Amino acid sequence: MEVIIRSADIGDAEEIATVHIRAWHESYHDFIDRSFLKNTVTLERNLPRRIAALEKAATGHGHPHYVATLPGRGIVGFACCGKWRESGGLTEPEGEISAIYLLDSAKRKGIGKKLFLACARDLLEKNMKTMALWVLQENIPARRFYEAMGGRCIKENTPLTFGDQEYLECAYLYDDLTRFKA
């Protein structure tokens, strides 16, 4: 299986939005309210936001998107990264991975690692030496992945609301991105 990691462009918006929606439904169905997923996490709601994010990234003012493609399958995952948006009271990291999503069928094949590395190297090219990311605390598989990539949890129990439900997030810090140089 030959995965290709490349920069996304506006023409990828619908496929990225579709992956985003499917990944949410596949990954979060056990711990995010199912009516929220069904009624809110939809292509109709996500596609305009994804188009806007890709347009902003194309001008250099937003987070670049990277996609993972498989021959004959198209986009199976994506990631976004950029300057830290100072969320959750953290001001320490310079950069962040703001999203990384894979279809279940693409997990545990090294694709997530390749997307992660594309983001880390993007931030390094922009002279950022540290990064962080947020993950839902209940998402144990994702937390294990971020820990395997060398991250350490620096903040837990940060509330996040989806619909009328509150969930908890934790932040992972990577304090030396130079270890991810190619």
Give a description of the structure:
- The chain is of the alpha+beta class.
- Helix 1 crosses helix 3 (43-58).
- The protein has 5 helices and 7 strands; from the N terminus they run E-H-H-H-E-E-E-H-E-H-E-E.
- It has helices spanning 13-28, 34-40, 43-58, 111-125, 140-148, and strands at residues 4-7, 65-70, 74-83, 95-102, 131-136, 152-162, 165-174.
- The longest helix has 16 residues, at 13-28.
Give the beta-strand count: 7
Strand order, sheet with most strands: 1-2-3-4-5-7-6
The share of residues in extended strands comes to: 25-35%
Radius of gyration: 16 Å
Low-confidence runs of at least 5 consecutive residues: none
Note the main sheet. 7 strands, mixed
Structural class: alpha+beta
Q: Helical amount among residues, as a percent range?
A: 25-40%
Gross morphology is globular
User: In whole angstroms, how far apart are the ends?
Assistant: 21 Å
Number of helices: 5
Order of helices and strands: EHHHEEEHEHEE
- Tell me, rounded to a whole number, the average pLDDT: 93
